[in-house]
Amino acid sequence: MSEVLTEAFLVGLLATTMRAAAPLILAAIGEAFSQTAGVINVGLEGYLLTGGFGAYLGSHYLGNAWLGAGTGMVAGAATALLAGYVMISRRADQIVTGLAIWILSIGAVGIAYRIIFSDGNALQPQRVAVDAFNEWAVPGLSSIPWIGDIAFNQVPLVYLAYLTVPLAVLLLRSRRGLKVRATGESPEALESAGGSVLRIRYLCVVATGALAGLGGAYLSIGQTDTFEEGIVGGRGFIALGVAIVGRRHPVGVLIAALVFALAESLQLWLPTAGVDVPRQLLQMLPYVVTIIALAGIFGRVRHPRAFLKPFERQA
Amino acid sequence: MTRRFGPVTANDDVDLDVHVGEVHALLGENGAGKSTLMNIVFGSVAPDAGTLEVDGEPVGWPTTRQAIERGICMVHQHLMLVPTLTVAENVLLSVMWTENGRRMSLAEASRRVTEIGERHGLPLDTSALVDDLSIGEKLRLEVVRSLLQGEIRGGLRVLILDEPTALLTRQEIERLFTILRNLAADGTAVVIITHKLNEVMEVSDRVTILRDARRVRTVPTSSTSPQELGTLMVGRELRPRRVVHSTPSGPPVLDVLGVTVADHHRVVVDDVSLSVRAGEIVGVAGVAGSGQDVLAECITGLRRSTSGAIILSGRDVTRVDRRDLIENDVAHVPEDRKVDGLVGSASLRHNFILGLHRWDEFQRRGWMRGRAIDQHAARLSGEFEIRTRGIDQPAQTLSGGNQQRVLLGRELHKAASLIVACGPTRGLDIAGTEYVWNRLVEQRDRGAAILLVSLDLDELLALSDRLIVMQGGRLVGELPAGEADPERLGLMMGGSAPVAVAS
Ligand SMILES: Nc1ncnc2c1ncn2[C@@H]1O[C@H](COP(=O)(O)OP(=O)(O)OP(=O)(O)O)[C@@H](O)[C@H]1O
Ligand SMILES: [Mg+2]
Fold first, then answer.
1. Local structure of B245: helix, strand or coil
2. How far is B8 from chain A (nearest CA, A)?
């Protein structure tokens, strides 16, 4: 076992974990707020997908990775806005809406991808050139032994993802954060205090979409420079688990995302270390962790009182 | 103002004017439309027709936020607090800015709540979770929050309180009334909704009576009497009630033997023993949170005691399932009807058989007997004069008092040998209160043992054949009905009187 734990292996594993956690954090941190406000985004997987595609598209046509990330955010936010309209204004069942949005995203992105990037009518999309993000070594910090290689030699979107955590902590402590908690716990109380439940819920859901869109952008033009339809690979659903297991708190989300990301990275790194485990078993790892987490093995999570409950203003 | 809910008219062209510097009482039976009218003023319900003027200026139909900005505050019948936030955070939720337009900080909110609390005798622990507050403290928080709101807007224009006294002890009510009169003196128009005529006489300058969604009359309090108010409100003359106390000698139906309950390592009921005989009403007095509600929960199987025994008609039921108890021998009118009594979103039809749904009357081999259930619901709705548009109506859309009637109808129908009634007339109007009192006495005369837990001393004194006083989880005294009076009870409840234990 000792020859497995070489420096190269550990640094590689942890650097991959850092990276793999980024899209999970981006998707889950907004989701944590949405759920605190009483709305679950089952369609998170779809927000990531439209975000990833939007970023690819934007980067290709605008020729700039940052602008691509921006279009990714807009695409994710637009998808979430649609879901939000159905869940919040039309008061439809959140789970069913989320699944519908997910399936709709797969269909819409699949068709758009084939139509836009195919030559002639073969509907065989071709690879195109996009401006992808490059690693940016943080001056100074990146030369710290071990740590520098693990944490400070990543693409900018990864730093952004980790930056959202302290920002979210501040937000949660602010008055807006109080309103978000009140919205999920007693919407009537928020309304009678002069707040608007609908406004808070829309803000949360659209922000979730924008952040997830950025997560999708990382998947298409951050860690690679290509797009394919299976690019999200269940990360949206894993992020739902991350938000819940992380107790809907930014720090909890950070920790949970890292645990899930470690499971994902082990799958890549264990074979290189010569550990002989069937690949399929390793690939199951993040999903198995999700199920274990959701089953409440890490302690039960209390849901807000108005969780999943549509709000109707007395009129 | 006019407002309809489907076929029900809640307000029918109601006029109301409230003057600066007065305390205005709004009086009316359950479902008369008092809450609806005040919700319109506060902007949480939109009227179908009508105009609203503040300081002579038409304001259209405000939203809640606009109402607050205009200095209109409301303490709702069902308190509007977020249980998972602290006292200070709940304040911050509605009081966002300081008077000079800066954002209010949590620290400042805490400081000012403490300060207002000290000034008005309304102490609050600002870092406590609202969930952990007693119901009286929650009300205190709502009042303090409104006062702070007023301070920031250079004076409260209007303060509305929807049945605040239903939750308070006598001392707390007096303190509240002092505050209201001071506010009025400082130029606030205060509106208070209550069903207690003596409170109306005590605190208000004018009274408006609503009946069946219409305004009957507005009169100066000094030129009216409780009798006249009662008549105006109900539309007929009320007879004063007289309850004949009984001194039963039969065997006890309920024996509580040394029951202790620890909640998170805090002893909330401490070695309490008592017994209730058939044909006897035993009243339990005590300030809110003295352990009386927890004791009632133990007796009715909602909670397990840590030690001690509960004997019902000679059978040890300490560890018996609640289902077994409430299906047969025990009727329970819980303290919080919204939590333990009714399913808000379910229809009256289903609420009327909740817990009795296994009775042969209502099911056969697991299939519900729709017709029998409907008949049962229709009969009880009629018998308890529930104001409803039909047995399909969800319980939560009934007025507060009517919800209470549904609960009572179901529980008293059981003809149980033991009735545990916690605040059975909370939120009921005079006629309703009289009705419930009569029904409870009727049940007693039928031979039921009744344990009556109430914060309302008038109620306890009117009904109880024997009184027990609890304080801090302990039983601190016992009095026969003849020897009890409000002063003596008040002192015992506060723990400052020599404890008299009658034999
Ligand atoms: N949201 C609603 N949906 C349907 N009906 C309603 C709704 N709110 C109120 N009502 C009906 O309007 C009528 C007036 O209700 P309101 O709550 O104003 O009565 P109230 O005078 O406050 O009575 P109480 O003393 O019992 O609190 C009742 O018949 C009630 O059932
Ligand atoms: Mg009311």
1. coil
2. 15
